[in-house]
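Re: [ENG-882] Designed sequences occasionally contain unexpected residues at chain ends

Forwarding the minimal case from QA. C-alpha cells:
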C-alpha cells in the first residue's frame, strides 16, 4: 500500500526542519555575536604541540575590559574564554609557521601573549587574525589604564612579582 501523498510531504518537511535547525542556529548565533559590536574573526591555537590541526576558528569581541572568544561552530552563547586586558602581555606578532599556514586563513598573522590568571599562573595564548583586527587588538591592549599596560615582554605575573 502506498502512503498518502500528504504523509510523504509531512515526512519530508519534518526531515528538512530537523536537519536544518542546527545550521540555522549556528548562523543566527554567529550573526548575534557579530552584531554586538567590537567583534572580529579570530582563530585560537588550542594545542601548541600540533599547530597544524589545533587552530580553532572563532569570533572574539571586546566587552568592557575583557576580550571574549567564542568557538565559531558551537551551541553555547557563553564565551569559551575571556582575557582581561590588564592581565595580557604581548610577546610577539609573527607570520604563521610552515606547519600553520594550511590551518589559517590567508593573510592572518599570529599574536602571542602571556596572560596572568587570577590565581597567579601564567598562560600562553596564540591568536590568529587579519592585519586589521590585529591592529585594533593591539591598540585596545595599549589603551589599557596606567599600570596595566601590556607593553612589556614579561608576563603580567612577572611584572607583578608573582
Amino acid at each position: 500500500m502506498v502512503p498518502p501523498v500528504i504523509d510523504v510531504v509531512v515526512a519530508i518537511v519534518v526531515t528538512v526542519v530537523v536537519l536544518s535547525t542546527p545550521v540555522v542556529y549556528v548562523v543566527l548565533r554567529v550573526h548575534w555575536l557579530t552584531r554586538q559590536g567590537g567583534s572580529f574573526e579570530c582563530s585560537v591555537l588550542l594545542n601548541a604541540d600540533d599547530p597544524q590541526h589545533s587552530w580553532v576558528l572563532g569570533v572574539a569581541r571586546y566587552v568592557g575590559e575583557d576580550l571574549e572568544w567564542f568557538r565559531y561552530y558551537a551551541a553555547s552563547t557563553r564565551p569559551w574564554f575571556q582575557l582581561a586586558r590588564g592581565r595580557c602581555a604581548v610577546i610577539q606578532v609573527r607570520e604563521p609557521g610552515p606547519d600553520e599556514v594550511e590551518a589559517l586563513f590567508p593573510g592572518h598573522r599570529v599574536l602571542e601573549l602571556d596572560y596572568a590568571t587570577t590565581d597567579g599562573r601564567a598562560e600562553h595564548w596564540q591568536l590568529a587574525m587579519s592585519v586589521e583586527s590585529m591592529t585594533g587588538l593591539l591598540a585596545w591592549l595599549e589603551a589599557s589604564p596606567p599600570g596595566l599596560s601590556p607593553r612589556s615582554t614579561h608576563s603580567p605575573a612577572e611584572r607583578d612579582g608573582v
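QA comment: On inspection the terminal residues look reasonable. Confidence is low (pLDDT under 50) at residues 150-162. Proposing we downgrade this to a documentation issue.
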